[in-house]
């Protein structure tokens, strides 16, 4: 009569192979932790970022954040809208209160909302401040190259019979 169970050698082999597999897998993260991966940086040592796209109605300026919700944009006192989104040089969201504590003037791209308050603000890096022009400035330059004055506005109150005539 055989008193030893037949599955004991199989479970022993399974347990030893599972232990060996666990040891091997545990060594892989330790080996990969020895490699040094460095992020690409610019001349100032800041990490490189992708170029940002700004909306067509964005404009460029310098802003000094005062007590929220006020700020000085290009020397003019303005209000920042309650739902304003402010993004730093790395596209991270920050608050007006954080910037008001710095008492520092920033180069920014900004948009205005319907109430002429500042709605979206992007703090520009040094490179962007030197090289980027706003989409509005690009559009104005293209219009000037075509011989059109971008500051000319059509008066909606001009009567129909006094509108300019165009030949067909």
Q: From the helix content, strand content and strand pairing, which structural class follows?
A: alpha+beta
User: What fraction, in percent, of the residue positions are helical?
Assistant: 25-40%
Number of helices: 4
Name the beta content range: 15-25%
Question: Low-confidence parts, pLDDT < 50 over ≥5 residues?
Answer: none
Report Rg: 31 Å
Sum up the overall morphology in one term.
elongated
Mean of residue pLDDT values: 80
Gap between N and C termini, in Å? 113 Å
In order across it, which strands form the biggest sheet?
Answer: 1-2-3-6-5
Number of strands: 6
- Note the run of SSEs as H and E: HEEEEHEEHH
**Largest sheet: number of strands, sense, barrel closure:** 5 strands, mixed, barrel
Characterise the protein shown here.
This protein has 168 residues and is of the alpha+beta class. 29% of the residues lie in helices and 23% in strands. The chain is built from four helices and six strands, in the order H-E-E-E-E-H-E-E-H-H. Strands 1-2-3-6-5 form a five-stranded mixed barrel. A hairpin with a 5-residue loop joins strand 3 (76-87) and strand 4. The radius of gyration is 31 Å and the shape is elongated.
Top keywords for this entry?
single chain, 168 residues, alpha+beta, 5-stranded mixed β-barrel, 4 helices, 29% helix, elongated
């Amino acid at each position: 009569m055989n008193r030893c169970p037949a599955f004991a050698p199989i479970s022993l082999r399974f347990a030893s192979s599972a232990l060996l597999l666990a040891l091997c897998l545990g060594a892989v993260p330790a080996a990969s932790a020895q490699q040094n991966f460095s992020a690409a940086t610019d001349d100032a040592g800041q990490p490189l970022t992708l170029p940002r796209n700004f909306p067509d109605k964005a404009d460029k300026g310098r802003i000094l954040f005062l007590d929220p919700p006020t700020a000085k944009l290009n020397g003019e006192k303005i209000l920042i809208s309650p739902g304003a989104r402010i993004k730093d040089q790395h596209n991270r969201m920050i608050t007006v209160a954080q910037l008001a504590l710095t008492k520092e003037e920033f180069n920014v791209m900004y948009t205005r909302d319907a109430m002429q308050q500042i709605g979206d603000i992007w703090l520009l890096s040094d490179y962007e401040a030197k090289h980027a022009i706003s989409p509005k400035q690009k559009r104005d330059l293209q219009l000037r190259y075509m011989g059109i004055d971008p500051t000319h506005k059509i008066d909606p109150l001009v009567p129909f019979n006094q509108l300019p005539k165009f030949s067909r």
